[in-house]
Amino acid sequence: MPTGAPALERIAPETLWPRYRTLVLYGLIGCSGVLLDFLLFLVLYNVVGLGAQLANGISLIAGVTNNFLLNSGFNFRTHDDLSRRYARYVGVGLIGMGIVALALHLFATTGGADANLVKACCIPVVVTAQYWANSRWTFR
Question: Mapping DSSP to helix (H, G, I), strand (E, B) and coil, where does residue 140 land?
Fold first, then answer.
């Protein structure tokens, strides 16, 4: 006999894609940027012979630019005022990088936690915050 608890609402699978399209594409595009960043770093550092910091800077900019262009064109479908949007996108990325750096300092460097674990725990939080900021600020 029912106890008065609300029944769980069934979510129709065909409603999931329209509802979560931008989030899923944001994640997939992010993965493509990470892959580009890493592969370009490997080439610049190991084949071309650039220093690690210079290779990292170039490959990071390439990954961020890749993600911006794909998100702008295919995900959020915004084509106006790209220079302002790109500056915002980079700004959101730098804030995310700062959050991770702060967490690493507080929990790994100062607190003695494993840096790999701290970084791994930060990723979902930072990606979610960046998606929220970019979807509501950069691409609006």
Answer: coil
Q: Are residues 103 and 86 in the same domain?
A: yes
Are 55 and 93 within one domain? no
Task: Write down the residue that tokens 């960046």 correspond to.
Answer: 130
Note whether 62 and 99 are same-domain residues.
no
- More confident call, 96 vs 3: 96
Can you say whether the dihedral through the CA atoms of 65, 57, 51, 106 is positive or negative?
negative
pLDDT in tens, 49-106: 999 999 989 999 999 999 999 999 999 999 999 999 999 999 999 999 899 889 999 9
Structural domain boundaries, residue 139: 81-140
Q: Is 66 in the same domain as 90?
A: no
Report how far residue 59's alpha carbon sits from residue 39's, in angstroms, rounded to the nearest whole number: 8
Dist. CA 95–CA 109, nearest whole Å: 20
Measured CA distances, 61 to 69, 102, 106, 110, 120 (Å): 12, 21, 27, 30, 22
Residues 30 and 62 both lie in one domain: yes
Model confidence, pTM: 0.81
> Number of C-alpha atoms within 13 angstroms, CB side, residue 12?
3
